[in-house]
Amino acid sequence: MFDMMGMMGKVKEMQAKMKEAQENLKHITVSAEAGGGMVKATANGEKRILKIEIDDNLLKPEDREMLSDLVVAAVNKALADAGEKAQEELKKHTSGMLPNIPGLDLSGFGL
């Protein structure tokens, strides 16, 4: 027989764990660099850029295009790494809560 109350309890427990995991994402930080460390970008688990550091040697008008390319590369790497860390954090908090269904994509839920 289907236990509706038990199922609702599991759903509420999962929602609470998801909310806790999502709150923790802002505390995860990841830094990435480009150009051998000349440009560094730091992002959090919410995929927000927190800081960009640029080596003084790149602050020349003739290096404007290269600087732009390096900033884009560092930011994209930081966001990708932050997304991976966020997924790990959310999976850690929800392990055992959801069935392992091949092809189930929970990325719309911040996973």
UniProtKB/TrEMBL annotation:
Its chief place of residence is cytoplasm
| Keyword field | Coiled coil, Cytoplasm, DNA-binding
Localization of this protein: Cytoplasm, Nucleoid
GO CC terms: bacterial nucleoid; cytosol
* A Pfam entry, by short name: YbaB_DNA_bd
Coiled-coil regions, chain positions: 4-31
GO MF term set: DNA binding
Task: Reply yes or no: does the keyword Nucleotide-binding apply.
Answer: no
Does the record's keyword annotation contain Cytoplasm? yes
> Which family does the record claim for this protein?
Belongs to the YbaB/EbfC family.
Instruction: State the HAMAP family in the record.
Output: DNA_YbaB_EbfC (MF_00274)
Described purpose of this protein according to its UniProt entry: Binds to DNA and alters its conformation. May be involved in regulation of gene expression, nucleoid organization and DNA protection.
Subunit-structure text: Homodimer.
NCBIfam families documented for this protein? DNA_YbaB_EbfC (TIGR00103)
Name of the protein this chain belongs to: Nucleoid-associated protein GU926_01230
